[in-house]
């Protein structure tokens, strides 16, 4: 895999709080954020809440709603209420949200191709003693 070199500004620490890498990681730091974007993509860019929840076992309705609202606030997802009886809600990736699909899919592909590495990380975590509580240095 060819990886384009990073701009010089990102080759040395410290990273500014508003630098692109930190902003990107903050954008997708929620547990379900990337999974919902990925699932919407798999559903052709749009899905109803029930379909999303069935596709993502373990995702509670409360967490799904919160994550969808966050994605909507970021401008990555639109919430559409269809004027039928009873009303139907559909979530759709915006043009901006669709721009994030390719890098997420690359990350997902890497994870699938390197599942053994992820398994090793899980084993390391399971075998490691729990960290001691942090002490207040003040």
Automatic annotation (TrEMBL):
Tell me which residues make up the HTH hxlR-type domain: 19-119
Identify the domain of life: Bacteria
Instruction: Keyword check for Transcription regulation, yes or no.
Output: yes
- Gene Ontology MF, one: DNA binding
Keywords in alphabetical order: DNA-binding, Transcription, Transcription regulation
Please name the PROSITE patterns in this protein's record.
Answer: HTH_HXLR (PS51118)
Please give the name of this protein: HxlR family transcriptional regulator
